[in-house]
Specification:
By secondary structure, this protein is mostly helical. The protein has one domain (3-334). It has 14 helices and two strands. It has a two-stranded antiparallel sheet with strand order 1-2. Helix 3 (40-66) runs antiparallel to helix 9. The radius of gyration is 20 Å and the shape is globular.
Length: 344
C-alpha cells in the first residue's frame, strides 16, 4: 500500500481518487457474486477468507509503522465484523433472489438504521424530515423488491414455500439493517484509532466468517459447496434451495478471486480511507453512485430486468437517501455560488 495512503491526513485529490476506486469496485461486487456463481453462504465465506489473507500483510505493515489496534478498537471491529458477516450472507442470497441491482438498492436501508442507533446510544436528535422520509423510503423498498409485481416471468415463484420476491426483499432489508449497525460500530472504532485503516478491517473480515460458517453448516440445505454453483445456465433453477447449479469451473474461481481482492479487500479499505478524509455529505453522495451503477450495469452483465413499479421504488429510495444526506442543500448551495460569481 502506498505511503500516501498510510498518512493520517491525505490530500483531497488523493481521497477523492481512492474513494471513487473503492465505490467502483463495490458497484461491481454484486455482479461479481453472480458471475462467480458459488452457493451464497459459501461465496460470502470464501470472499472474506481470501480478503483476510490478502489484507493481513498490509495490516502487519501498518502495525509496525503506527502501532497495533487498541483493545476497545479490536472488540468493536470484531463485533462490527459479525454484523457485516450477517449482512453479506443475507445480501448474497438477495442477489440471486431479487437481482444484483435491486439488492444493492435495498442496502440503502442503512440510512434509516444509523440515525436510530445514534438516537439510542449517542442522544442524537434527527431532523424532522427523517420521520417523514422513513415511511416513504420503506414504501420505496417494498416497491423495489417486486412484492407487488406478482410471480416472476421465469424462474421459481416461491422458495421455502414463500414468494421469492418477499424472501429476497426481507433478506435485502436484513442486510441493510446489519450494514447500518456495521457502519455505526466501524465509525466508533475509527475514532478510537485515528489514522489506522487496515487493521480494523482485517479483524472485521475475520469476524465475518462466524455468521457465514453458521449459515453454511446449520441453515443452508446445501452447506459448504465448492463443486456446484447456484445458477443453471445463468438462471435461477426451480427449487433453488435444494437444486445444485452448474459445476464450478476455473472461470468461477477467477471471478471469486476478483471479488475477494477487488470487490472486498480493496473496495472496503479504499472507501474507509476516503470516508475519513472527506466531508460526510460528499461521501454520502458519492456512495449513492455504487447502487446506481449496479442497477444500470446489471441488465447488460446479468440479463436482469426490472418492472415499472420496481423502477419507481428505486427512484424513491435514491431520492430519499439523497435528501436525508442533505445532498439537495449541497447542490443548491453550489448553484447559488456559481450564479453569484462575477463574469470574467
Amino acid at each position: 500500500m502506498p505511503d500516501s495512503l498510510n498518512d493520517k491526513n491525505i490530500s483531497k485529490a488523493t481521497a477523492y481518487t481512492v474513494i471513487m476506486l473503492g465505490i467502483l469496485a463495490l458497484a461491481f461486487s454484486a455482479i461479481m457474486v453472480k458471475e462467480a456463481n458459488f452457493e451464497p453462504a459459501t461465496n460470502a465465506f470464501l470472499r472474506c477468507l481470501i480478503a483476510f489473507v490478502v489484507l493481513a500483510p498490509f495490516a502487519y505493515m501498518e502495525w509496525k509503522k503506527k502501532g497495533k489496534l487498541n483493545r476497545n478498537g479490536l472488540i468493536i471491529a470484531i463485533g462490527a465484523g459479525v454484523f457485516l458477516g450477517i449482512d453479506m450472507t443475507a445480501w448474497n442470497y438477495a442477489i440471486f433472489y431479487v437481482g444484483a441491482g435491486i439488492s444493492s438498492i435495498l442496502l440503502n436501508l442503512q440510512i434509516l438504521v444509523l440515525p436510530l442507533l445514534a438516537m439510542t446510544f449517542d442522544k442524537f436528535k434527527p431532523a424532522k424530515s427523517f420521520w417523514v422520509l422513513a415511511p416513504i423510503m420503506i414504501f420505496g423498498i417494498v416497491l423495489a423488491g417486486g412484492i407487488f409485481d406478482g410471480d416472476p416471468i421465469e424462474g421459481p415463484a416461491t422458495i421455502y414455500g414463500y414468494p421469492i420476491a418477499v424472501v429476497g426483499t426481507l433478506l435485502g432489508v436484513l442486510s441493510g439493517i446489519c450494514y447500518g449497525i456495521y457502519l455505526f460500530m466501524s465509525k466508533k472504532s475509527s475514532t478510537m484509532n485515528p489514522g489506522i485503516y487496515v487493521q480494523p478491517l482485517m479483524w472485521v473480515f475475520l469476524a465475518q466468517l462466524i455468521p457465514q460458517a453458521f449459515t453454511m453448516f446449520f441453515i443452508s440445505d446445501l452447506g459448504f459447496d465448492v463443486s456446484h454453483g447456484t445458477l443453471v445456465a445463468g438462471k435461477l433453477p426451480m427449487n433453488p434451495e435444494i437444486t445444485l447449479g452448474d459445476p464450478i469451473t476455473a472461470t468461477n474461481w477467477l471471478w471469486m478471486l476478483a471479488l475477494a481482492v477487488i470487490g472486498h479487500a480493496m473496495a472496503w479499505v479504499f472507501v474507509q480511507i476516503g470516508s475519513v478524509n472527506l466531508d460526510s455529505t460528499i461521501v454520502a453522495g458519492l456512495l449513492l453512485l455504487s447502487p446506481i451503477t449496479t442497477v444500470l450495469v446489471a441488465p447488460y452483465t446479468s440479463g436482469e430486468t426490472i418492472s415499472v413499479l420496481q423502477g419507481i421504488g428505486v427512484v424513491i429510495v435514491l431520492v430519499a437517501v439523497a435528501y436525508q444526506n442533505d445532498l439537495h442543500k449541497a447542490l443548491l448551495s453550489r448553484f447559488a455560488r456559481a450564479g453569484g460569481e462575477p463574469q470574467s
